[in-house]
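G., the chain you wanted modeled:
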Amino acid sequence: MPESILIVDDEQDVLDLLAYHLQRAGFKVLTARDGSVALQKARDHMPVLVVLDLMLPEVEGTEVCKRLRADPKTAHIPILMLTAKAEEVDRVLGLELGADDYVTKPFSPREVVLRVKSILRRAQGEAEPAEVLKFGDIVVDSAKHEVTVKNKPVELTATEFKLLATLMERRGRVQSRDRLLNDVWGYEGDVDTRTVDTHVRRLREKLDKAADCIETIRGVGYRFTEMT
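Predicted structure as tokens:
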């Protein structure tokens, strides 16, 4: 059975365009034109990914993102946001609420398909680092796709999980933002590196005091140290 993707946008032409290209890429497509319907379809059908526009009637996209992440049943579903170029504040908020990535309108359907595939590769654990990584209070178990801090589970998105595992696997070595975009997100070229900063900030919040291990190298990127 093909994997299903839920597309949420209040513009029918956008739904039709994305549905056409995602179906050509081998996915089954579900659609919703407002946030309340999107939440219900996500819970009923459990898609492997949600493509979510931020500007929606009834329930805004940021609220949809927040509710999906807060519900244990849907918290694991990756989210790709669609935003207008002028909506930088909403875009950052969406990432902080748990979205895995974003594409700005107007967009290339081919880029959306590539982003979807890249997010799903991360979610499905392709090319994961060593099976169990442990430093200080942090334990990353790739086989179980589980992170614990002081033996307490920490809920991470697929992108946050891969970001942490990548930094831990390369502990002591500085990782530039461009390198992380390439190795964690699978992107090359002119991509906004603030995506990395937003995910690191959210990851630090979830790790709480154990986040001291993630060191910022000003003007370059980040480094995982064994200091806890």
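The first strand starts at residue 4 and ends at 8.

Shout if anything looks off.
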